[in-house]
UniProtKB/TrEMBL annotation:
PANTHER family per the UniProt record, alphabetical: PD-(D_E)XK NUCLEASE FAMILY TRANSPOSASE
Lineage, top ranks: Bacteria, Bacillati, Bacillota, Bacilli, Lactobacillales
Protein's recorded name: Rpn family recombination-promoting nuclease/putative transposase
């Protein structure tokens, strides 16, 4: 890989880039403000970032999990904040696993169950996580009976947001953050937005983190190179074709959802080029294909 490749990629990266997202919210002040915007009814105490990319395992031989941002406050609340660009169609199962590991982490031997504190999993997704066209989804356990329905109140809450949805069904402060993630016009008078832009710039200039980004990018490129070499030899051809068709369908579905949400052609193409890192020509192609698909189903103009 050319040296300029990772530098160009870093220069173009925004908060939807996993690495930039992690390093930005190492700043506990910014993480606390974001949590407060997502959970305005929760009094977030003094916040401590446990570790970005923090790994937890339930047992020595069980599957481990790396959190993007894992934090806790002095009221024993725990928060996991995740940035998810690709839809891997396993979000519900991932939420269950994340919550189970956070629960294991919150209890010490001999501790009363009621002392475990609350656990919040927050996902910012570049797709519709619930598939129902909503901007946000809240997940909590409920108790059903033949005559009633109520919340369990076990302290576990998960929230998922569709960054691509601009329907403004959240508070304006949170909408500003979602607009920033999506590359839409943002209220630049919002001090949180100003501080985030400064922090992102700082992350990109930090020499230690630049080197870390370079090494990670080289590693990813090596994996991709090895995969392509295997394809050329015919070892993965059938798998590759299925994977590429699935990826194409996922992108088209995403663009259709963006158009349905009322976003213009320029906004859709900007999203695809800045967040999904598509070349402009490819983004324009997907937009045209999505328009044709919607017209075919009677949804287009």
């Amino acid at each position: 890989m050319q040296v300029t490749d990772w530098r160009q990629r870093l220069a173009q990266a925004g908060l939807t880039d996993d690495f930039i997202f992690n390093k930005t919210f190492l700043d506990a002040r910014l993480a606390k403000e974001l949590i407060s915007r997502v959970l305005p009814d929760i009094q977030v105490g003094k916040l401590k970032i446990v570790e970005t990319q923090h790994e937890l395992t339930a047992t020595r031989d069980s599957k481990g999990l790396r959190f993007d941002i894992y934090a806790e406050d002095d009221s024993k609340n725990r928060f996991d904040i995740e940035m998810q660009v690709l839809n891997r169609h396993n979000l519900a199962q991932r939420i269950r696993f994340y919550q189970s590991l956070m629960a294991m982490d919150s209890y010490e031997r001999g501790k009363d169950y009621r002392e475990g504190g609350n656990a919040f999993v927050i996902f910012f997704c570049c797709f519709d996580p619930g598939g129902n066209g909503n901007q946000w989804y809240r997940v909590e356990r409920e108790i059903y009976s033949s005559s009633s329905r109520s919340r369990l109140g076990d302290g576990e809450v998960s929230l998922c947001f569709d960054v691509t949805n601009s329907s403004h069904t959240v508070s304006q402060p949170l909408q500003n953050f979602l607009d920033l993630l999506a590359g839409r016009n943002v209220d630049e008078s919002d001090d949180f937005i100003v501080q985030l832009r400064k922090r992102v710039a700082f992350v990109k200039q930090n020499r230690k983190w630049r080197r870390e980004y370079m090494l990670r990018t080289v590693y990813e490129m090596d994996i991709e190179h090895d995969r392509r070499q295997a394809v050329k030899k015919g070892h993965e051809q059938g798998l590759l074709e299925g994977h590429e068709q699935g990826a194409t369908d996922e992108r088209l579905n995403l663009v259709c959802d963006l158009i349905r949400s009322g976003q213009s052609a320029d906004e859709v193409i900007k999203f695809l080029t800045t967040i999904r890192r598509m070349p402009t020509a490819e983004a324009e192609k997907y937009y045209q294909q999505a328009v044709e698909r919607l017209k075919k189903h009677g949804e287009g103009k």
